[in-house]
Write a structure and sequence with these properties.
Elements: H1 3-6, H2 10-25, H3 29-49, H4 52-55, H5 63-82
Helix pairs in contact: 2-3, 3-5
């Protein structure tokens, strides 16, 4: 497996997820949810714009299916975060 496939733009996804989890662990639940949604949207944009050879492990299915799946996940994360009731 080539280094490009192992260390490609999917690291953006990994770093974003780590940042989102760190925000949640530190008590910033809403920030973590929005960071996750933003990370998924950026990943979708990378998958849409970069050639398949450059996206590495982000290319799982066809470009269209990958982008739609990532955007649906981003929208779901943002919607769930927006309606999250944080007061007891």
């Amino acid at each position: 497996m080539s280094a490009q496939r192992l260390f490609g733009p999917w690291l953006v996804l990994a770093a974003g997820i780590v940042a989102a989890v760190a925000a949640v662990v530190s008590g910033q639940l809403r920030l973590g949810g929005y960071l996750l949604a933003l990370t998924l949207a950026v990943t979708a944009a990378l998958r849409l714009t970069l050639p398949t050879a450059m996206v590495g492990a982000l290319a799982v299915r066809s470009r269209t299916v990958d982008v739609i799946g990532l955007l649906l996940a981003a929208g779901g994360a943002a919607a769930l975060t927006a309606v999250l009731k944080l007061t007891p």
